[in-house]
Amino acid sequence: MDGPIVAGTDGSESATKALLTALRLAASFDQELVVVSAYRRAPTGAGLPDEFAHLLTPLSQVEAVLEDAASRARAAGVKATTRAVEGDAAAAILSVAEEYEADLIVIGNKGIGSVKRFVLGNVPSKVVHNASCSTHIVHTS
């Protein structure tokens, strides 16, 4: 393995399990880990109804998730870069993997909650079907 490993996380238990696997792989292969977390802002002046507010991920929450990932990487002795990317989680992971010319993408198999999955699609499925590099799906349930 010659290129970095990209891992997507939203801070969930499932994503954290996948992140820990990515950290072990990065340490084993002595590769950089690039951790990606996507966020969505409320459209300006849109007045989003409360029942859809859970579909948004504030940047501050993503920054906290990425800081936790960076801390875990430091503790594991892994060189890590973190990226907060606005938009769809799968597109963010794929874009960063392309940008860094990743050799591997690591992601959990659980996807996202039922309402989000219905509205936004299944992130692991989108990543696997569109990645230009190898993918490692971590069984997280």
Quick one: CATH superfamily? HUPs
Number of domains: 1
Helix and strand pattern = EHEHEHEHHE
Estimate percent helicity.
40-55%
CATH arch. level architecture: 3-Layer(aba) Sandwich
How would the global form be characterised?
globular
Give a count of the beta strands, DSSP E runs of length 2 or more. Answer: 5
CATH topology: Rossmann fold
Question: How are strands sequenced across the largest beta sheet?
Answer: 3-2-1-4-5
Mean pLDDT: 85
Secondary-structure class? alpha/beta
Give me the number of helical elements: 5
Alpha carbon gap, first and last residue:
27 Å
Q: pLDDT under 50 segments (min length 5)?
A: 112-120
Could you walk me through the main structural features you see in this protein, from its secondary elements to its overall organization?
With 141 residues, the protein is α/β, with parallel strands linked by helices. It has one domain (5-138): 3-Layer(aba) Sandwich (Rossmann fold). The protein is built from five helices and five strands, in the order E-H-E-H-E-H-E-H-H-E. The protein has helices spanning 13-29, 59-76, 89-99, 114-120, 123-130; strands at residues 5-8, 33-39, 80-86, 104-108, 134-138. Strands 3-2-1-4-5 form a five-stranded parallel beta sheet, sandwiched between helices.
